[in-house]
Structure formats: structure tokens, C-alpha cells
Amino acid sequence: MESSTHDNKFHFDAIVIGAGFGGLYSLYKLRNDLGLNVRGFEKGSGVGGTWYWNRYPGALSDSESFVYCYSFDKELLQDWDFDTRYVRQPQILTYLEHVADRFDLRRDIQFNTGVTAAYYNELCNVWEIHTDKGEQFTASFLFMALGVLSAVNYPNIKGHETFKGECYHTGEWPEHVTFDNKRVGVIGTGST
């Protein structure tokens, strides 16, 4: 990619990858507190990160609800209150959507866009970012807000590729799946 200038529509002061808790916070601080021209990339169609993707029945936080609130804005703290000690996925997602709307963060996020490569160009002193849409961007700063649960990991089980039944992963749970009148096997352990 050739050297970009700051007036190039594909150059940003900072790019943030991911629109979960860390990504939204980074976008807010970089834009609102530092006055930077920012762009966020999110592979999903909405904000929320882990709480956007993990929609399986019973998904909830394993930390108390007060942990799931931003503290950078006193008014936000005052106008939002979770009503349970441990918060369910839909409530957390609603909170993050509220934050994104309250601070108009969506305007700086490009949804349904995955980042396929990012590397630092030492000759131009910029990060070069490539997306799954074939776009190329540059930025002076790059923030990785991917979270530890951003990649779905299917177990390597012999015969999985020829299994004719339905398979679901908790990290990519479909919204309206039903298990009525079905035999179900569960693989894995932990909170999911």
C-alpha cells in the first residue's frame, strides 16, 4: 500500500478491532477524550463482542453485575442499574447497545467486517489493515480489542465432517433453535 496522508478517507488516527467492552471503551476514549479520528471494525452485525456472539440458553456473567458497568461517565452509572446480582446475556447486550447509542459510537464502527491482516509499515510509520471485504486502511495507532473468546474452537473429533445431524457451538448460537423431540449430545465442560 502506498503512503497515506491524513486527509485520505482510508487513513485514521486510530483503528480499533472489536466492538465489545474493550472496543467500545477504546473508541469512546480515543474519539471523545483525545479528539482522534477513529474507525472500529467488528465482524458481527452489532456491538457486544462476547455478549453478541454467545446467545446460548442460560448465558450469564460469572462476575457480579457491578463489574459489567463502565465507570468513565457518572451519568451513565446513574441511569443504568442491573436488577440482578449476576446478569444474563440479553441484559448485558442491551447495556452495550445503550452505551453505543448514548455516545453515538456506531457511526465510527464498520460492522460485518473482519480484519484479515494488520502489520506495521516502518517506512511510512503507519499500521496497514486489510479487511475481508478487500479494503485497505492505515492508522497511526492500532488497538486490538478482540477479547479472549473471539475465535470459535470446534473439537477435533473423528467423523465430525460426515455427521448428518445439527451441530451448534456456544460461540455462534443461532437465535431460534429448538431441541424438542431430539436426542442431544453435549461436548465440553465449563459454564457453557
Secondary-structure map with pairings?
Blueprint: E1 11-17, H1 21-33, E2 38-41, H2 50-53, E3 60-64, H3 74-79, E4 86-88, H4 89-102, E5 109-110, E6 115-121, E7 126-131, E8 136-144
Parallel strand pairs: 1-2, 1-8, 2-5
Antiparallel strand pairs: 3-4, 6-7, 7-8
Name of the top-level CATH class of the domain at 11-144: Alpha Beta
> Stretches where pLDDT falls below 50 for ≥5 residues?
1-7
By CATH, the topology of the domain at 11-144 is FAD/NAD(P)-binding domain
Content-based structural category: alpha/beta
Which percent range describes the beta-strand content? 15-25%
- Order of strands across the widest beta sheet? 5-2-1-8-7-6
Return the average pLDDT rounded to an integer: 89
Return the CATH architecture of the domain at 11-144. Answer: 3-Layer(bba) Sandwich
Short description:
This protein has helices spanning 21-33, 50-53, 74-79, 89-102; strands at 11-17, 38-41, 60-64, 86-88, 109-110, 115-121, 126-131, 136-144. The chain is α/β, with parallel strands linked by helices and 192 residues long.
